[in-house]
């Protein structure tokens, strides 16, 4: 993807906010991204580029952590015994009243691989798991949460870096230690989110730590940004990974899980909330 982001509004029109998850003490911090445009290859005109306009939105400051994802998986926001709570039955359980949101099967092995849990990126989850988390959070909060598109991801990750720069901080790969967890400093495992420098728009870990599920230019799942297993020079803004059978090859279930990836320890996700739709909505005022 040959994006060339250009911000047309240097001062973001939105304010940062913290999303509370009712029934818990967990919160998600989101930062504003200004509107702008990106130049991408034109599929209808090989060799040419076309401009895609991107509206302002908010994005989670870090990758979504186990603190938030556990609530979704284990229904920690629902009192035990209530519909969809821990007292419920079934693999893909529904909760949150009329929204009847499908939640994942409980993992059969520790999905954090022993790397760390509180404050660490959720990993081992499928694209479906990331998408359904967004649906659950949207239904719960009254805001519209979703995964970034591939174009949006590169735009928010690049921030104010030059269009031709391979990294959010420019082209000097020797600075990567300041911004990313990679094969040279991560000790072959994920690290707590938000410990490295953010990009110019306040977004942490756009390079390394875990790759991030996005919606590709072709509408199919794609993971952007690279992970802790990659070398610093591999963690460019163009880094993309597609799921293969190897990501879930040792899953003993037949059919294999649609929620968890038994052999993928390097993909997580972050979420975005669009423009005016992301304005705070008080509990009880949901549509």
Can you give a write-up of this model?
With 287 residues, the protein is α+β, with helices and mostly antiparallel strands. The chain has one domain (6-278): paralog of FGE (formylglycine-generating enzyme). Helices cover 13% and strands 18% of the residues. The chain has four helices and 14 strands. The protein has helices at 66-74, 127-141, 150-158, 176-179; strands spanning 6-7, 17-20, 27-33, 36-41, 49-54, 57-60, 94-95, 101-102, 145-146, 211-215, 221-224, 240-241, 267-268, 272-274. The strands form four sheets. A five-stranded antiparallel sheet has the order 2-3-6-14-9. The protein has a four-stranded mixed sheet with strand order 12-11-10-13, covered by helices on one side. It starts with 5 loop residues before the first strand and ends in a 13-residue tail after the last strand.
Distance between the termini: 37 Å
Q: What fraction strand?
A: 15-25%
Q: State the CATH superfamily name.
A: paralog of FGE (formylglycine-generating enzyme)
Note the run of SSEs as H and E. Answer: EEEEEEHEEHEHHEEEEE
What is the helical fraction, as a range of percent? 10-25%
Shape: globular
- The domain tally reads 1
Q: Under the CATH scheme, which class?
A: Alpha Beta
Architecture per CATH nomenclature, i.e. the level-2 architecture: Alpha-Beta Complex
The CATH topology is what? Answer: paralog of FGE (formylglycine-generating enzyme)
Count the beta strands.
14
Strand ordering within the main sheet: 2-3-6-14-9
């Amino acid at each position: 993807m040959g994006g060339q982001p250009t911000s047309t509004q240097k001062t973001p029109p939105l304010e940062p906010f913290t999303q509370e998850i009712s029934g818990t003490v967990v919160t998600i911090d989101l930062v504003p991204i200004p509107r702008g445009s990106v130049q991408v290859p034109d599929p209808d005109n090989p060799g040419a580029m076309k401009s895609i306009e991107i509206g302002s939105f908010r994005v989670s400051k870090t990758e979504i952590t186990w603190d938030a994802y556990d609530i979704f998986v284990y229904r920690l926001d629902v009192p035990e015994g209530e519909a969809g709570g821990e007292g419920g039955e079934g693999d893909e359980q529904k909760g949150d009243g009329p929204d009847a949101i499908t939640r994942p099967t409980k993992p059969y092995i520790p999905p954090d691989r022993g790397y760390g849990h509180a404050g660490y990126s959720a990993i081992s989850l499928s694209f479906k798991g990331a998408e359904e988390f967004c649906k659950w959070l949207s239904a719960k909060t009254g805001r519209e949460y979703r995964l970034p598109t591939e174009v949006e991801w590169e735009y928010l990750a690049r921030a104010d870096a030059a269009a031709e720069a391979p990294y959010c901080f420019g082209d000097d790969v020797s600075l990567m230690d300041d911004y990313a967890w990679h094969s040279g400093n991560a000790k072959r495992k994920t690290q707590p989110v938000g410990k490295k420098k953010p990009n110019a728009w306040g977004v942490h870990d756009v390079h390394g730590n875990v790759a991030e599920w996005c919606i590709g230019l072709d509408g199919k799942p794609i993971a952007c940004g690279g992970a802790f297993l990659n070398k610093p020079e591999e963690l460019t803004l163009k880094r993309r990974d597609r799921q293969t059978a190897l990501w879930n090859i040792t899953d003993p279930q037949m059919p294999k899980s649609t929620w968890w990836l038994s052999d993928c320890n390097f993909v997580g996700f972050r979420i975005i909330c669009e423009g005016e739709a992301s304005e705070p909505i008080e509990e009880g005022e949901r549509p």
